[in-house]
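debug: dumping io for the single-chain case to check the tokenizer round-trip. Nothing else runs in this session.
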Amino acid sequence: MTPFGKAVRALRKERGVTLTHMAKAVGVSAAYLSALEHGHRGRPSWTLVQRVIAYFNVIWDEAEALENLARLSHPRIVVDTAGLDERATELANRLARDIGTLTPRQLDRLLAALKEAGATE
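debug: decoded output
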């Protein structure tokens, strides 16, 4: 599941909306929306994110949060460390190798460290 998919699913459940109904309303198939929620599809397009925002009638901070989550929701990423400090290359490689073994607590700590360091969302 991706951050955006988790948020969309939570909004659907909170508002009692079925996957099929929402998919039809935002102009995608139920299969696509399900795959998007589960992280089996790439980052949603800007247009789709705007349709979701309009569908749920969210504004301001909540809309901005959904846009940020969409940007952070590509399930298959490439990290280019060419020209960066060798530690950046090591970090990217270790993360790629070990991410599947990290506990939720370890993931939370790593995310918190990146946020504290000022990494943009």
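debug: round-trip ok. The chain has a mean pLDDT of 92.
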